[in-house]
């Protein structure tokens, strides 16, 4: 078995970048009383009013039980409301309340500063290349299967 030094393992670089971004966004949304998963859920709900918990979990890349916990906490704070779907009574539609919209606007203003600061570290061409390279990495990772050991 050939081993790679940690510095050559792309996964460790992806993980470090993800952790740094998560820490920066966490600091940005904390004054609004949100966690990053709560912020992400509110952000997706603002784009897709009435989204189901299952669809929201997929959009936020978390498990359905995790999303249910996030939604329960947001609902207890009065930031979201969940109502039965008009035709599919076993599906709850999730929407932001007016207070949820205000909290999201506050958190998003600071989160956008993180995104803009990050983007400013690259030229337009570099940003385009980075997005393309990350897209290729994601496409590979979503279709890759672990090698079967015999």
From TrEMBL:
<dbReference type="InterPro" id="IPR036388">
    <property type="entry name" value="WH-like_DNA-bd_sf"/>
</dbReference>
<dbReference type="InterPro" id="IPR036390">
    <property type="entry name" value="WH_DNA-bd_sf"/>
</dbReference>
<feature type="domain" description="HTH marR-type">
    <location>
        <begin position="7"/>
        <end position="139"/>
    </location>
</feature>
<dbReference type="Pfam" id="PF12802">
    <property type="entry name" value="MarR_2"/>
</dbReference>
<dbReference type="InterPro" id="IPR000835">
    <property type="entry name" value="HTH_MarR-typ"/>
</dbReference>
<protein>
    <submittedName>
        <fullName>MarR family winged helix-turn-helix transcriptional regulator</fullName>
    </submittedName>
</protein>
<dbReference type="InterPro" id="IPR039422">
    <property type="entry name" value="MarR/SlyA-like"/>
</dbReference>
């Amino acid at each position: 078995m050939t081993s790679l030094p940690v510095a050559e393992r792309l996964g460790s670089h992806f993980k470090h970048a993800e952790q740094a971004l998560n820490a920066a966004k966490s600091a940005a949304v904390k004054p609004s009383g949100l966690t990053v998963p709560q912020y992400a859920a509110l952000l997706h709900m603002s784009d897709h009013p009435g989204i189901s918990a299952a669809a929201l979990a997929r959009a936020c890349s978390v498990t359905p039980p995790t999303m249910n916990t996030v939604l329960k906490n947001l609902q207890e704070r009065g930031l979201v409301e969940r109502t039965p779907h008009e035709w599919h009574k076993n599906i709850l539609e999730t929407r932001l309340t007016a207070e949820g919209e205000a909290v999201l606007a506050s958190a998003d203003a600071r989160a956008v500063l993180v995104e803009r600061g990050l983007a400013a570290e690259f030229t337009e061409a570099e940003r385009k290349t980075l997005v393309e390279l990350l897209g290729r990495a994601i496409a590979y990772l979503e279709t890759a299967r672990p090698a079967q050991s015999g």
